[in-house]
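Box 3.1 A note on notation
Throughout this textbook, protein chains are presented in two layers. The first layer is the amino acid sequence; the second is a token string describing backbone geometry. Keep the layers aligned when reading.
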Amino acid sequence: MRDEVSARSRIQLYPDYTAEISEINRSGISVDLLYKIIHKHKPNSEYNRKLYERYRGIKEGVPIYGRKPRYEDSEDIINNRIANDFFGEIIDFKTGYFAGTPIAYNYAEAEDNMDAADVISDFVTRNNMFDIDMEVTKFASIYGYAGRLLYIDKAGEESVMPVHGYETIILSNTNMTEPEYAVRYYYTKTIDNNKIWHVEFYDSANVYYYIGQLSDLKPDDTRTRADGKPADPVEPHMFSYCPLQGVPNNEELIGDAEKVLSNIDDYDKAVSDNSNEIEAFVHALLVFENINVDDGEIRKAQHTGAICYRSGSNQGKAYFLTKDINDSFTEHHLERQKDNIYRFSKTPNLSDDTFGSASGISLKFKLHGLETKCGMFQAKMMSAGVYMFKTLASSWNNRGHNIDYLNCTMDFSRNFPLDIANEAQAAVQLKSVGLPMELILGQLSFVDDVQYVMDLIERDKNDIPPLNLYDTSDDSLSESNANESLSGAVPREDRSEG
């Protein structure tokens, strides 16, 4: 039985919720409509969950682990199932390259509004946005999009958490970074191992809680508040916009490794088949020609390495029969598949010999495909960041802070090995031909904000004290006296003691 290639079908794409949005606008949310929304999302959710299981490397998630032997007529059939984790490498490489260096969150007019800068700094530090951004990047890279939920924590502070895409539904007429409504659904298990579904529906003012089976949801009256009292199934979330948003990996909402899943599966099958071949034949078979040898004698030969037999009149003999394996064909096939996996997933192959010797501009060309992929995701992250700060500002301003969300900035830096020595040499050469410093600084990869660096250079110039021969703080020395003293000054070495 052959393994089926894991490929996303049309029904497993993210669904269109235009009709559902119109229904909510007209009549509000209902249990029946909520079930229809979730049921429509289930094929996409199930496929995304399988991709996450594949990333985790569990038995149910990696296709090669479920492969059955071609012939099952023997109890001791050899069936090696070897997984090569190209999938995880593609995800981790993109995550480390894009989010391995923390995104810098700032306020553009910090000098005029230090309170706003402090609020944003506290939010970033309290929530460890480095970790949040890493997880969001990883989720989006695995299966196409991630969820990000803003909420008020028990201390009354604005907080944020990543949410798995397979349990997040975004309803929007624009894009999922700007939700009109959102649904989060997930299950827990009882002590009897029964599934209980929890569903949260978000609009621009409230969050609605439901519990039960998806086909029979009820308002959740089992929740309690921090003081131990029963919580209302409908509560205000304290923001002026829907606080659960989506962060897409790309416009198509597909993961980074989805286009090479068939290549990865074929590579796993070829390696597993080779392993089966080696183990089954152990490279050679011992042949007895015109000789009667019993099983006991064969076992003795396996232990001692020698065998004694009588050939009789038939001139019997024993010899090894080796199998002629076309290893060149196999290696070329594996190498071709590996190259295609890296090429079509836009992931650099770090085992490539030429990659290890590359530097400077040649290294950047090798990373061009990865950079293009990360640039697309950065555009989505910036759109999601604008909406996140708009939503947060609606709560901050209600608490007395004056924050313009359009002044909240995000600066991205790739986790790229710097070649400072070559860049510095190039900068000196550019300066020698008369190019302005502002243009030169813009070509340095480690300079994110040219104007900020120019300000630092100007500040350092102003901090250098002028060379004064006399302390002008002495009132007894006027400018005329100073000039007069200078005109009659005698060099130190020519002065006499008299």
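The two ends are 114 Å apart (CA to CA). Confidence is low (pLDDT under 50) at residues 482-498.
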